[in-house]
Amino acid sequence: MKHPLFAKIAAxxxxxxxxxxxxxxxxxxxxxxxxxxxxxxxxxxxxLAGPQTLIGPLVHSACVxxxxxxxxxxxERRTEERRREFLLTAxxxxxxxxxxxxxxxxxxxxxxxxxxxLKAHLTAQWPDLAALRPEGTVRGSRMQCGAPILMLxxxxxxxxxxxxxxxxxSAQVLRPGTFHPVYARxxxxxxxxxxxxxxxxxxxxLDLELVGTERLAIVPLGGTTEVQMQSTWPHPSFAGxxxxxxxEVGDGGFTARWRLSSLATTAQQDIAKGRTVCDTPGDGxxxxxxxxxxxFVDPVNPYTLSDRAAKYGVLFIALTFVAVGLFELxxxxxxxxxxxxxxxxxxxxxxxxxxxATKRLRVHPVQYLLVGSALCSFFLLLVSLSEHLPxxxxxxxxxxxxxxLLGYYASHMLGGRWRGLPFGAGIALLYxxxxxxxxxxxxxxxxxAVALFAVLAAVMVLTRKVDWYGLAARRMxxxxxxx
Length: 483
Known about the structure:
By secondary structure, the protein is of the alpha+beta class. Helices cover 35% and strands 30% of the residues. It has two domains: 4-37 and 303-343 and 353-473, no CATH class; 48-299.
C-alpha cells in the first residue's frame, strides 16, 4: 500500500465510529432501565401513596350573598333574586409543625423506592376568626354562611393512616374531604358557629400519621411558620422556595428547621387565590403557591451513576487508543529492544544482524476494535450488576474483569507481558479515576480537568522527540507480530 499510515488512520477512524455506535446503544439501555425504575416508582405510588404536600390547618366558610333586584319596565317589571357565592378563609397567625419521617424501602421487581411514614404534630393559633365574618356588597342583601370548617389538605389522601384534632382542648370529629373547591383531598372538622364571632385566641392541635413516597412538601401558611423535621434518612435534598434556616445532616439522618414570616412569603395569598402547589416547588414561578420540600433521594442510584460513567466512555476509548499507539510507536523507535521471538542466531551481534531483528510491532485495527469493545462492555456489566449488588461492589467486579482481560490480551498484542502489565495498570488507574469522579459532586469537573491535563502532558513528554514526518515517509518492510 502506498500510504500505509493514512490507511491505518482511516481504519482506526472506522473502528472509532463502530465503538461510538456501541456506546450509544449502551446509553440507550441505561436510559431504558431508568424509565423502568420511574415506572416502578409510579407503580408503588399508585398502590401506596405518592409524594405528599401539607396545606393547613386552615379555617374556611362558604357563604352566599343574595338580594332582590328589579328588572324590566312597565308591565314586564319583576323582581329577581341575585346570588353571589364566595369563600372566606382564615389562615393561622402562628403555625408550628413538629415532624419525624420514618423511612420504609419498597420494591417493585428489581427497583427500590423510598417511602416514608410521617408523624407530625401541628399547632395552629388564630387571634380570632374575624376573617370569617362576611361583609355585604349590596345594601340590604341577605347573608348565609355554612359552619366554619377546620381543614388540612394533603396531596394524596390515601396516605392518611391516623389523625386526631383538638380545638381549644376539646376533641373534634374528623371526616374525609376538606369542602374546599381547590384543595379537596384531606380531612376536616366542623366547628361551632359561635366561634365565628368569639373574641380571643383559637388554638387547634392536630396529630397526623401520613404515608408518602420520595418527597414531602409543606406550605408555610401561618403569619409565622416554624417547622422542625427529623428523619433517619442521611441524604435529604432540600428544595422549593425556602431552604432550612438550620440543618444538621449526618450518617444517622438529618434534622432541619424552617422559620418563616408572612412578610417573606405569599403563601397565604396564594392559597386564598386557589393556586396549585407544584410537584417541584419553585419551578412554576407565579403560577404556584409558595412551599418548601424535602426529597429523600438515593445518592447511589445505579442508573444515574451508570449514565454518568457512560458519558466518559469516549474519553476512555480515546486514552486507551493513545496508550496502544504510544506502545506501538515507542517499540518501533531506534532504541527499542527486539520483540519476543526476534533474537539473532547464537553468536551473532544485534548490530550486525539484519534478519528478524527488523521485525516491528504493529497493532491491527481489529485488535483496536477488540480492546475498545472490552472497554464498552464495562459499562454494560456495570449497569447489569448494579441492579443486584451494591454499586461499589458492582464497579469493582466490572472493572476488575475488564482490567484482567485487557492486561492478558495486551501482553500478547504488544509482544510481551512486560508491556501488557503497564498497559493493564494504566487501565486500572483510569477505572480508579472514574470511580473517584462518580463519587464527587461539586469538584468532579476540576478533578477531571486536572487529570486530563496530566495525561495530555505525559503524552507530549513521551513523544517530544518523535519525527512524525519520518514516520509517514518510512518504507521499512514490516511483519505482523503473532499474538
